[in-house]
């Protein structure tokens, strides 16, 4: 394509954005469209501002209603509703989420303010986190509360659980979909004067997913049902709480996730992997409390224990019968077994004793332990870190309409154990990182908020960053230092009237000491080093318009530019433009007709390969009887995802699903 035609194409795309751009101010779902019993668990919410009834940033919340309205079954798809968020896949068939260009190691995931990312590499597979017990998803971009603790280089993602609001309430979901998908979820809860209890169970199993009819078969993929794309996830979540008075609350939660999945092989000719995970399990116990100490002080405690266990089996071919026995360590048996443990706690003292000040003093402690087991159950690798964080946050009321938010934190990483068979590691030194931030929020204009934030953030290196030799192709680097970033943002939010709202923001992030791979450090061996200097900037716009009660229109647009200032390497897996539109029509009180459009521009997947952009359309119809039955309120939904059967990919060699139908029934009582 010549420069002239490329420029014309870009202009046409920009015109398309302007004309079709409706942008969800994340008020897409209303009580009339989705009827759920969910109420957020207030102890699990992390607020940037002291005033809890005001939004923190644009596109910072995805509600339970929205997750149901758009028929999302996992957290990753739900996050994709937001501006500034993009999805990708990796070679392990894991859904990756990027927030303004930052990956999940730099924008970690929390449940009710408790970190849940895998301790070895800092990632999670967003496909494995179903939504049955999720009340809302908070996303802080760039500027995030120091209450989260360490490693929030680009922000934080917080999954807020449910809490019952009535003496007896519940919800049942049953669904089927193309390619043998079946799912079910049950929630039941009870709120009483001095206690509450709830239980959530969910099941989601797929034989795989169908490829587009436009997909051209290769030597590793014959089309139709994607090879080795099956998955199965079950989840049980229990919560019990005590509320002895109007201010104090004590809550104990237990979550057990069991998963298994296949890893579709690449459709290309290089690095073909025949992998399966017979189990990908996570078990958590956590305690959260809020206690009033004096008239002006409260104390919040979070304590948790996490168990991560998974096994990866590597096979010789697509028959998945013979384990691949070449390699070293546990890989020599064709089995890679991880046995990881996390223990931690945080203590927050909040005080409003000083006039016009809301001060929080926060202490975090966390241990990350990673073990790799051989086929006999013996540990051939064991790494353990300790992390400490001390932070202070002060929200200062400068006047009726002006709030100043200040935060400072110091994080410490202390290696505890370093052991690997055949690799005589020495224990590296401790290291530290400091965060500081300032935000100014102005509400002096009716139904409008203006804000400016600056946040200096850090990410300490993971165990994998420092110690992994990646099957003998890398030299370990135990002395890796923390990544650092300064995030700038200016935002504007307004609600013109009951029908029309607009949010927009511009942002810039400068990253120093970014941990990147450096090739041929010693012979043909590579190494992870602090060499990256990356700049990311862009804008987000959101718009929501409901001219009549029967019509809603909205969406969001993100422009994101990323450059590596250290060398000419491309920043991969992230589109420069992302557009989302939705249109909801209610021809009657009981019927919803909804279309959802997503468009992503081209994205680099290596220094010399760029994947085409794509546009997909989803459509669904929902029927909700006007009168409740004796059992409760029913809602029936059916629809089609990727209506045009678009053949597209988020990663090279890993095509996405083609046209697939679904049906779902929900009973709320």
Describe this structure in words.
Strand 23 and strand 24 form a beta hairpin. It contains 4 helices and 34 strands. It starts with a helix and ends with a strand. The chain has 669 residues and is mainly beta. It is globular, with a radius of gyration of 25 Å. The N terminus is likely disordered. It has a single domain, classed as TonB-dependent receptor, beta-barrel domain (Maltoporin, Chain A), CATH 2.40.170.20.
Shape: globular
Count of DSSP-assigned helices? 4
Total number of strands = 34
CATH architecture: Beta Barrel
Strand content: over 45%
Write down the CATH class: Mainly Beta
Average the pLDDT over all residues and give the rounded result: 90
> Which stretches of 5+ consecutive residues score pLDDT under 50?
1-37
Distance between the termini: 58 Å
Quickly count the domains: 1
CATH topology: Maltoporin, Chain A
Helicity, in percent?
under 10%
Largest sheet: 22 strands, antiparallel, barrel
Work out the radius of gyration: 25 Å
Q: CATH homologous superfamily, by name?
A: TonB-dependent receptor, beta-barrel domain
Please state the structural category. mainly beta
